[in-house]
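user:
I keep going back and forth on a fold encoding question. Separate attempts, laid side by side, tell us more than any discussion would. Would you put together a sequence-and-structure record for a protein of your own picking? Write it directly below this note and I will take it from there.

assistant:
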Amino acid sequence: MHGAGPRLVLGLHRSRHHRDILTTALNLGVSALDTAAPYFGFRSHTVLVETAADLLPKFAVSTKVGFFQGAGGVEHSLDPGRLRLAVVEAARELGREPDTVLLHNPERSLAGLSPADGHALLGSACTALADAARDGRCRDWGVASWDTRPLRRVPTDGVPSPDILMVRAGFLVGIDVLDATAVLRDVWRAGEIWGMSPFGGGGEKMWQDFDPRSFLHSRHDDLSRVQAAFRAAFHLPSAAAMAVGTDSPHHLTQLVQALDAEVDATAVSRYLQALRRHRQS
């Protein structure tokens, strides 16, 4: 899953889990899938096997643990025992060990805790996943966070450093979250940054009043605004891979084509500076 150059990871958050998008991904050279235990009504793992068991060995699969079905609905937990069982269950449902297991939105359980209590809870959860990787339950482990601000406030000394830190990316991410991600990345010494949700769940209408192509070098003027927004998201924040969901083979093809575009780092820097000035005004 690791390698030089920007990489696309096919995300299954809102996917219908149809076989055609998986075959299209493979044909385009996309060989990484990202899902989670609660996706598709807590059926993502089993539906993947039902529809594409023969294709799954061709993908590096990442999944997430931390959300559980409870008596009152979906609940979040960082209990290490529940997390260890969830990793085992994911492998059983997938028919194989996942390549990567991510701690799913730990900020949900850390909100409101003191730094000391948050440190203890996060440390035990991360240790559970680090132990799972050590024991061969997965190859890599990491943390997926929708809002890194609560995580930034938790001390990371003594907490295992994740192989992967997955965070929100793109133009719809506020500067407070982007700056919190930068701090967390540095103090936690995460091995690799993955972005996610570069379009924030929106469609092409979002880009009618804003042209992200100004963030690419001029020789890429043939790309669409959506393609430019996707490619620039790799710099907001700096990420090696981007998890993006689509059920459209055409849309996926367009995104893969955008990977070769070169981003204007100076334009990105000016954009971030403008966001910080606006925050202070």
Remarks:
- The first helix runs from residue 19 to 27.
- DSSP finds eleven helices and ten strands in the chain.
